Amino acid sequence: MKLSKTGVFFLLVLSFTCIATSSKAQAGWEVDFVRNANPANPNNFVFKSLSSTDYVLSAGIPLGIFAVSYFQHKTEGEINGVEMLAGLGITTVATELLKSVIKRPRPYTTYSGIYPDAIDNGYSFPSAHTSIAFSSATSLALIYHKWYITVPAYVWATGVGYSRIYLGQHYPSDVMAGALTGAASAYASHWLNKKFFFRKKK
């Protein structure tokens, strides 16, 4: 039986809820995972660059789509850009709300043997970098339905998530929750657009 998009969305929310309920406690394997992935000197150019691409690409892609479509008078492209930006807005708000409610400390503030690339005073759960990257990847998948767009987008988003662990900033469950938050936000934006705004139902 094929799962509908609405079903997938609610499955993502349910999975996220399961992670969130145990978010304040870290399993031993999570701490070990971070220690094994995170070197004593995490200032690796590749991973630091990959981690920093999420904000640039996540904002740049929809703005670029909107700008090009605007000048070419392509309404569908403009709608696509707005939908992606709305998904980013939803995931940003959701992520910050969860951080303020759950208040999980960064791994290096709780455990020894974890070396961050930089000190961040913000909370750890969920990973904002990961949620933003997965919101963008999921929006691209929902809008364009092309494997050569979807696969690279998710590979990039997964790389961003792993880079946050490598840099000592997050636990694996932070990254998983960020991925679910981002994907759910993109689904929400896509659904709202179809239900109430511009996109025509197919």
The outline comes out as elongated
- What integer value in Å does the Rg equal? 17 Å
- The CATH architecture can be given as Up-down Bundle
> CATH superfamily, please?
Phosphatidic acid phosphatase type 2/haloperoxidase
- Main sheet record: none
Count the domains. Answer: 1
The number of distinct β-strands equals 0
β-strand percent reads under 5%
CATH class: Mainly Alpha
Task: Describe the protein's architecture and organization.
- It is a single chain.
- By secondary structure, the chain is mainly α.
- It has a single domain (40-196), classed as Phosphatidic acid phosphatase type 2/haloperoxidase (Vanadium-containing Chloroperoxidase, domain 1).
- 73% of the residues lie in helices and 0% in strands.
- It has 8 helices and no strands.
- The radius of gyration is 17 Å and the shape is elongated.
